[in-house]
Write a structure and sequence with these properties.
- This protein is an alpha+beta fold and 291 residues long.
- Helix content is 29%, strand content 18%.
- The strands form two sheets. A six-stranded mixed β-sheet has the order 6-7-8-10-9-11. Strands 3-4-2-1-5 form a five-stranded mixed β-sheet, with helices on one face.
Amino acid sequence: MSKRRKSGQQTPKKQKLRDVFVPRPFEGLADEVEWVALRELVPAATATLTLAPEYADKFPDRQVIVATVLPQAWPAMSKPDGRVFVGLQRHVQSGDVSRDLAVAILQGLATEPGAPVSVPALPGEGPRLQDVLADGTLDVTMHEGFEFWLDADAGDDPNVKASLERANSSIYPTERMSVARAVYWCRVPEKSHIRWVLPDEQDAALDALARLAAADGVRLGEGTRFAGMFRVHGLLVPVWDLPLAPPASDWEEPLSAFTARYAESLAADTPLMPEERRARAGLLGRQLTLR
């Protein structure tokens, strides 16, 4: 027979975790735009991270690598050799992407090499990427496929090989442009695109693009089209449609000319003229906001 709870005694309530939306989660990181690009634009890439001294001293023998995506969109993997992989593109996340990634890193570091990593969906308050990492630019390595997921002998497993082939078939050719940070070219079945994560405040960036649009200076050349833009993680990402055939290298020079025009437009300190305000309204009508 079970014991009765004494009169007046109540079961303590489990504290509910609050989820707070952070619209610009990578703000404050030196390479904010590349973090956004790897999360939103790039199919297969990695970069080795440097831990802040507090964590580097605690885990001196572990290496942390951020990847665009991991198998089944896992948040983290602890490899048998001690490396910890953290995935940017994942199914379950809270309102603060930076906090999610910091928890994934710390959980991966606390997990034995080769063991599954448990990462909570709602991590609650605690350190963010800006606290866990020694800040600096990301040295991004582009990959044509997801072979970087595998351990040395895993490719011999026919199930793993089939899964890898399916994942690789979903990748569109993507190349990193050299003219600026976070500019990526990709080729899809019917056309090519260039997308650029602008580092500037959204309103200032939008005004700069509006000035260029009003002066027909927003295109990248003959046969190109300014397709619009989207907002993601607090930044603006303009998108251009390009002819299918030319390789990415053919667009370095037109992009360089555009970045110079954009920088000049961004530096303008005069109010928008009527035609520029109309161009701004037109740009706003073609934008999409991604959370």
